[in-house]
Amino acid sequence: MALLPFAWVRGLASLLYPLRMLVAHGWLRESDIDAGLKLLHPALRLNRVFAQVTQRQWVADDMLELTLQANGNWYGAQPGQHLQLYLERDGVRLSRSYSLTAVQPKGRVQIAVKHQAAGRVSPYLLEHLEVGDVLELGPVYGELSWPEAQQGVLLLAAGSGITPLLGMLRAALAQGFSAPITLLHYVREQGQRGFVAELQALQAQHSNLQVRWSLTAAGAEPGALTGRFAGEHLTEVTQLDQRRVLACGPAGFVAQVQQWWQAASLPGALQVEAFTTPVLRADVSLREVRLGFTRSHQQATANNQLSLLEQAEAHGLQPVHGCRQGICASCTCTLLSGTVRDLRSGALFSEPGQPIRLCVSAPHSDVEIDL
């Protein structure tokens, strides 16, 4: 049981400065101080960011939005960025990345968690995490940003790709953005449409906002969109050639949007973010390679198609990772020898000592990495 109310936890952060100085000069150990602080409250730490769950709200049949109140060490974030979240399960420290759907004053943030049946983290968060529980938060990252100019915006989302786009949409409308906005969200079934009530309310409140859904695996109502992304779905989008386009979803969906955008020759820049490993390239033939994990003293037979992260895990290693999409850099490792291929661009890298991201790098030849 906490000895201090959480409201005091944020205020104590500035009072801990003398202890931070003692740690910085080697007079005290941070771990010893944290051991005492967490007896006062589970979210109280010298430097690390912990947050208390203050609200749970289901926003789709398979998606839960969590409201978190961070301690006084919170460093801030922007809507649309991703937040690293840590928890311990069965003695193993796990880390996952979730998009910020809202960033509010005084360390209050919201994230949305989509159920992954085979996952180790999302089932726990959805089924067992309770209001009042405490989680550790890591760095924020992500490069999606709302266009600065007052030009029309087209938001394309698939599945949980709605979450970073919603975060930016909420902030833009709150700040008075008045140019046309179209949001098109692709989901398999009706019940997977996230934040329906809120988006419909925003559409009724803001005449510049249009929201549409497309069902990819179920029948739709007359006049509604069906099927996966296609350029024909955008025929009702006005002034399409003047829109700034942002897209987020699985790698296959993002690739489809990129192909459409290039074929349409639209001006400006396309902003995309994929939350799954890029699809295998058809022009790269499958072959066997050898992997060497130097610090683990292991050699393994692998292939040139899957990411180094997937293949390391398949051989019993547990590399540190977060987003699994090449954004957060948690899985960065040093290439010692050989050539790797960037799964996103196809670019080859072979300079020894070069940092590579395991989740989006595949071996192009026999490879040695510092893992």
Defining key terms:
8 helices; 6-stranded antiparallel barrel; about 375 residues; 20 strands; Rossmann fold; globular; about 20% helix; Elongation Factor Tu (Ef-tu), domain 3; single chain; 3 domains; Ubiquitin-like (UB roll); 6-stranded parallel beta sheet; about 35% strand; alpha/beta
Q: What features would you describe in this structure?
A:
With 371 residues, the protein is α/β, with parallel strands linked by helices. The protein folds into three domains: 6-141, Elongation Factor Tu (Ef-tu), domain 3; 153-274, Nucleotide-binding domain of ferredoxin-NADP reductase (FNR) module (Rossmann fold), CATH 3.40.50.80; 288-369, Ubiquitin-like (UB roll) (Roll). Helix content is 20%, strand content 33%. The chain contains eight helices and 20 strands. It has helices at 6-12, 17-24, 30-40, 122-127, 162-174, 196-205, 251-264, 308-314, and strands at residues 49-60, 63-70, 82-89, 92-104, 108-114, 134-141, 153-158, 181-187, 209-215, 225-226, 244-249, 270-274, 288-293, 298-303, 332-337, 340-342, 348-349, 354-357, 361-363, 367-369. The longest helix has 14 residues, at 251-264. It is globular and about 65 Å long.
